[in-house]
Amino acid sequence: MLLLTSVVSVLVFNRTFLGLFFAGVTIDSIHSFIFAASVPLFMIIVYTLLTSLFSLLVGVRLAVMINFMFAALVSYATASFGIVFDKEMLRNIFETNSLEALSYLNVTVVVYAALAVILPVVLMSRMRFSDTFKQRLVSLLSVNAVGMLGVIVIAAVFYKDYASFFRNHKELTKYITPVAAYDSTYKYVRDTYFTKPTPFHILDPAPRLNSYVAGSSTLTVMVVGETARADHFQLQGYPRETTPNLDREHVLYFSAVTSCGTATAVSVPCMFSRLNREEYDHFTADHQDNALDIIQRAGVEVTWIDNNSSCKGVCKRVPSFTIEPNGGAGECQQSTCFDSVLVTAVKQYIAQSTRRNKLLVLHMIGSHGPTYYQRYPKNFRRFTPDCQQSDIQNCTNEALINTYDNTIAYTDYVLGEIIETLKHSGIDNTQMLYVSDHGESLGESGLYLHGFPYAIAPESQTHVPMLYWQNLQSDYAGISRGCDSEFVARKISHDNIFDMLMGMTGVETIAYRQENNVFSQCDQSVAGISSDYPVAAAP
């Protein structure tokens, strides 16, 4: 049983890894041919050894069934969508909600689970062993002895080949199923639940509002998009009319923005963190001030309204609200709401809030997959035929692209409505910043969805849209008009968001870095405004 399930796990459930391995290895001699052939053999031996050791804790039958089930499910996600189960992907999985998880359930998944998981497990559970405990122990020791001998022989002959190849192709080890997923799970649990208590770090105990902002009424709306890739925005040069409303508003569109991560659980807390992408660590960021904390401490009313899974810990110290599907009337379905509910929320917030200076953060459901077709009402099926199913890998590329473009067009509609609301709000100074958390793969190179390891992630998952709109009084901020085309084309990232928010809300803080605020770069030549003040841009 150990050998049989190990052979199936390697040859069937690791077909993605083996395909990438054989595509990357150079076979130009008998030695290299035998080396390549030794890799699946080596994996079978190691799988057998690991499962046999696991069986000492739970028994052979249960150890085999657990490994088999886990390998089968991980293999499906990897082979179908190109998903890699590293630590950040595991964080994204563990921090999702049940409704989001159920969006991946479809006929294909059910059939696959029945044939590749349930049926084999049932057959294995019905097997009966007639040998004694002593015979099982001898068999187990024999298997391990032969396995260790095999490992030693392969290592002795091909150690240099293994070391050289996998040193140059480290990313391939993330595809080894289910060992890589086990390793990532261990790291996630270790870092999340077994770290030493750390005191919370306050970055600035006394930030304050600049006099220009404190003397007027202001509302800054920060819209956090979901799964929007830049190259499907009309504003980016996409040939389809996916953002006609924003185009009419003459927003400032930033064309070269990269995300901090490729999954919401990383990108959202990272973009509000003082840490940049290279130094970002979830644990460190969670134990220090983020942008919302500092802005709130400066005297701005900060509110987070969520139409997605959660704020990923960013809003834990500010007032926050999650829109419930049963409270959105016609704007909601059974389990989710269209993003138009955020327009309603903005109107209600403006009517109810009495504070002069406000920051409202809206978290969209945007283009969240794989159920893209559930992100827009039927009357927004602008591009057809669309893909009305969650097993998107079985849709035609045309239908998949149409469906995704419909989500972008609906996002454009929602942002346009928010802008119209701000225009007629009666507030002296209003502005809106929109940026997506990450992009999305739509079948390119066999990849779907997002969450790929950042070092090897395709540009479609890291190049995100960002845009800015304002209706500010002349004395709120100034900018050299000739700088517009220059600064919106700069290469920036989520690392700039922290300082841009400080400038937009008029917060003076020791945590501010002016060089990161792209708006301030165009303000230094404006008379009457101190270059020390991080002001917002005016078109």
Description:
The chain is of the alpha/beta class and 539 residues long. The protein is 45% helix and 11% strand. It contains 19 helices and twelve strands. An eight-stranded mixed β-sheet has the order 5-4-6-2-7-10-3-11, with helices on both faces. A two-stranded antiparallel ribbon has the order 1-12. Strand 8 and strand 9 (448-449) form a beta hairpin. It is elongated and about 85 Å long. Residues 478-482 and 524-539 have low confidence and may be disordered.
Which regions contain 5 or more consecutive residues with pLDDT less than 50?
478-482, 524-539
Strand order of the largest sheet: 5-4-6-2-7-10-3-11
Q: Whole-number radius of gyration? A: 27 Å
Tally of individual helices = 19
Helix content: 40-55%
Helix-strand category: alpha/beta
Please report the total strand number as a whole number: 12
* Strand percent estimate: 5-15%
Largest sheet: 8 strands, mixed
End-to-end Cα distance, whole Å, is 69 Å
List descriptors.
539 residues; alpha/beta; eight-stranded mixed β-sheet; two-stranded antiparallel sheet; 19 helices; elongated; disordered C terminus
Write the layout of secondary structure elements.
Layout: H1 2-11, H2 15-24, H3 30-58, H4 60-81, H5 87-94, H6 98-102, H7 107-125, H8 133-168, H9 179-193, E1 208-209, H10 211-214, E2 218-225, H11 244-248, E3 252-258, H12 264-271, H13 282-286, H14 291-297, E4 301-306, E5 320-322, H15 340-352, E6 357-363, H16 397-423, E7 429-436, E8 441-442, E9 448-449, H17 459-462, E10 463-471, H18 484-487, E11 492-493, H19 497-505, E12 507-508
Parallel strand pairs: 2-6, 2-7, 3-11, 4-5, 4-6
Antiparallel strand pairs: 1-12, 3-10, 7-10, 8-9
Helix pairs in contact: 1-3, 3-4, 3-8, 4-7, 5-9, 15-16
